[in-house]
Design a protein that fits this description.
Elements: E1 3-8, H1 15-23, E2 36-41, H2 45-54, E3 58-60, E4 63-68, H3 80-87, E5 92-99, H4 105-134, H5 142-162, H6 172-178, E6 188-195, H7 202-210, E7 214-218, H8 220-227, H9 231-241, H10 247-259, E8 261-267, E9 271-278, H11 283-290, H12 292-296, E10 298-305, H13 306-312, H14 315-320, E11 325-327, E12 337-343
Parallel strand pairs: 1-4, 1-5, 3-9, 5-6, 6-7
Antiparallel strand pairs: 2-4, 8-9, 10-11, 10-12
Length: 345
């Protein structure tokens, strides 16, 4: 299943423009309150080279599921609770901030961060209040409830005190307990500063980076306008505006870095397939992302670094160079690995 990344922010920042640029799908006004989902293909030179090498019958590039979430309303707080609940469905966030018409992008990021923290505080504090009552009752799970209460209290206190969980390192118990909460403040977030003109906004970017944010600046609406032109007009207009390339692929790569995703490949004459996997996960996790049966019957993974495959010319040459290797289920998959999973199922 593709990784789901939420496009988030206040209304009017340009989320839907980013969604259309990356997915090629126009925003659907009927989904303004529930959110709209689309797939964005990851441009990948290694994948293209593997397709050229194997010439398969089918090619499947990596894709990210983009979720254009309902924009928060800074004037009507009562509608934001439901909209923040929708955002929880995403695994990573791209906050789109409009830096035009006199908007203060830094202040808007701070306000949005506060909205996320207050929403998390409500969930955690409500659970703490419930546990403070239930853990005093003579019930068979009293010890478990007390342990959960002790795990959640520090998080509730940090959110109430600092309005963030920065610097809080969750232990195994806290991670397990909060998994179902899908806390917004724990999600990786990229700040996309959306400008009206090609302007890197160095002061804004520097201020946000100093505050600890991952930042990218792009004129998304202008980029979408260029996409609608034919090749000659697009080239001429881009030259006049001083644009040297598309922000689309740069943004896709920034999303991958923010979500801490790597790419591995499965290759054969029948199909070349690119897969996304969270950095640090293992060969059996990679097998599971392909099909649960492969993970259930996992025997071994045959690993070929695709860069070496392309450099040396083929699998025989890679094996001759001693670069092909067999790994068990605990092998940590590296970016660019080509995997062949042996399974007993």
């Amino acid at each position: 299943m593709p990784m789901k990344t939420g496009l988030v922010g206040f209304q009017g920042g340009g989320k839907s423009t980013v969604f259309e640029l990356l997915t090629g799908t126009a925003p659907d006004p009927s989904k303004a309150h529930s959110g709209q989902v689309g797939l964005a293909t990851v441009a990948d030179a290694r994948f293209d080279a593997l397709v050229e090498h194997y010439r398969p019958g089918k090619e499947v590039p990596a894709r990210i599921e983009l979720f254009d979430t309902p924009g928060l309303d800074p004037r009507q707080q009562d509608v934001n609770t439901q909209r923040l609940g929708v955002i929880r469905e995403a695994q990573a966030l791209v906050q789109v901030v409009g830096a035009f018409n006199g908007a203060d992008a830094v202040e808007e990021v701070d306000r949005f961060s506060e909205e996320l923290a207050l929403a998390d505080l409500q969930i955690v504090s409500n659970r703490v209040s419930r546990l403070e009552v239930d853990a005093t009752k003579p019930r068979p799970d009293r010890d478990e409830l007390q342990a959960e209460l002790e795990a959640l209290r520090p998080l509730s206190e940090a959110l109430e005190r600092d309005l963030n969980l920065d610097g809080v390192e969750l232990n195994e118990t806290q991670e397990r307990i909060t998994r179902s909460f899908s806390l917004l403040t724990l999600k990786q977030r990229l700040i996309l500063v959306n400008t009206a003109e090609p302007d890197p906004k160095p002061d804004i970017a520097a201020a946000l980076e100093e505050a600890g944010h991952k930042v990218m600046v792009a004129a998304v609406g202008l980029e979408l306008e260029l996409e609608a032109l034919d090749d000659d007009d697009r080239t001429e207009m881009a030259s006049e505006l001083g644009l040297t390339g598309s922000c689309r692929q740069e943004l896709m790569q920034a999303i991958l870095r923010t979500a801490d995703l790597i790419t591995f490949y499965t290759c054969a004459e029948k199909e070349v397939h690119a897969w996304l996997l969270r950095r640090g996960l293992t060969a059996v996790d990679a097998a599971d992302s392909i099909h649960s049966d492969l993970a259930r019957g996992f025997i071994r993974a045959e690993v070929t670094p695709c860069d070496k495959l392309l450099e040396l010319g083929g699998e025989k040459e890679v094996k001759a160079a001693g670069l092909w290797h067999i790994e068990g289920k605990d092998y940590v998959v590296e970016d660019g690995d080509e995997l062949f999973i042996r399974s007993g199922v």
